[in-house]
Amino acid sequence: MKKTFVCLILGFNFCFTNAQDKNDPVVMTVAGKDILLSEFLFLAQKDTTVNLLDGKSLENYVELFKNFKLKVAEAESKRFHESQSFNDELNSYMTQLRDSYLSDKEGEAEAVRKVYDREKEVLSVSHILFKFPSSRIVSKDTVDAYRKAGETYRRIIGGEDFHAVGKALAADTAAFYETIEYIFPLQAMKPFEDAAYALKNEGDVSGPVRTNLGFHLIHLDRRIENPGKVKVAHILIAPMDVPLDLKDNEDETLHKKADEIYRRAVNGEDFAELALYNSSDINTSGKGGELPYFGLGEMVKPFEEAAFALKDTGEISQPVKTRYGYYIIKLLDKIKRPSYENAARSIHSSMRQGEWNFELYKPFEEHEKEKFGYVFYPEAYADLQKLCDEYHPEDTAFYNLGALLTKPLILLNGDIILQNEFVEYLRLYPFSAKSYSGDFLYDVFRQFVRTIVTELEKRTLSEYHPEYDRLVKEYYDGILLFEISSNRVWDKPIEEQAQLESEWIKELHQKFEVTLNRKVLKNMKKYIKNNRN
């Protein structure tokens, strides 16, 4: 029977139970509950001190296991498992455990590594932007910008200077021209960044690149090896310190004072004291002029260039002129960019946001699509794309017309999902930051497919990952064991605990019935072999 996307995403609870077979018999019954051999072995094999092939070790473990299950039964009889705190803790664990199955860690690591490797270089680029007429556009709205971008691109590859063309177009307000001193990974719009890093040689120019703003032509000005970060101390000699009677010769006065401070510093006077009594930067003068570590693009350019030009710790720059005044800079430390191991978590966190998440989660999605027999029907998607030529996916007209489309759009897990089912999803979850209608549609479509395969994976965890149920049961029992044991023994004085434990075990055996399947225990070697196979 066909399940609609609503059933898959919002639908009904399914539970998967494995039929008991001869290789998974009941090993014992405690308080009326059958314990399967699979659970018994799962826990035993996690304890390295247990050897189930040794009679004495097996006997000891059976006793421990039996007492453990009796304590859990006692906790359940007191309804500990119905408390809010218990369910909050269990649900939190189940969420974390389930999420660990809903990802491709190796694939994500590879995506993170690509970004990290890209960080080896920082780019300096210039670009010419032909803007879109509004923030929500359809295909016809892109034609003029694309035509102008194409014409300009042909002029440039025909021999005209990129920068001269850009400045001329900007002067006529026909386009926007800008030089971006530094581009780091994950800081620009993804299509722009991808196109910029794809340029190999200084002077290379990209063809038209579409972003939310319009079409860009990108010129690679420089590729710069990422220098990492520096830590410096500084002394600022600023115009505010020039007496009124010397304002006419302000720059000369500032430079003269800066030179004097510089000579005193290089001649051995304490830099921190010089900063305390001479620096105009009141935020750092009391700290010896020290600044936090910084990288490229974080300071005014002359200051930055002078700081990164210093080679050795303790080296002091000559006075550096900026729009704020003159700086004397002392190098305190240099650090390279962090190792992959230290940078990976931060990169992963950044990639989870915005359009980079598609790159991060693509390996998981592709694996799940293959697993659930994904089939895509391009002619059905083309119908939706055709609607985007006239209407933005957030427009009512798009929904009304899309609701009439009934061709199969995708096949997943043997179920056909129709065009109008996706349109309904889009109406409910129109989440995309893209301005161009076709890009918006594609973003939501990918989210749609990801949502369905994720839900399918959640609902089939027990089927594909039988250890999932065992881990949940182990944690469930563990919480109850902790709560009941704390209540009966662990919260009491330590010298009383052994006696209390012994009395409690006797009480539990009197309260609850326990039946051992001696036949299974006797043939443990055979079952262990079958379990391994």
Account of the protein in words:
By secondary structure, the protein is an alpha+beta fold. It contains 22 helices and 13 strands. It has helices at residues 5-10, 37-44, 55-77, 84-101, 105-118, 139-157, 162-171, 190-198, 250-266, 271-278, 301-309, 340-351, 356-371, 378-388, 396-402, 419-428, 437-459, 461-464, 467-490, 494-511, 518-522, 524-532; strands at 26-30, 33-36, 121-131, 176-183, 209-210, 214-225, 229-237, 320-322, 325-335, 375-376, 408-412, 415-418, 514-516. The protein has a four-stranded antiparallel beta sheet with strand order 4-3-6-5. A three-stranded antiparallel beta sheet has the order 2-1-13. Strands 7-9-8 form a three-stranded antiparallel beta sheet, sandwiched between helices. Strand 8 (320-322) and strand 9 form a beta hairpin. Helix 3 packs across helix 19, helix 5 packs across helix 12 and helix 13 (356-371) packs across helix 17 (437-459). The chain is flat and about 100 Å long.
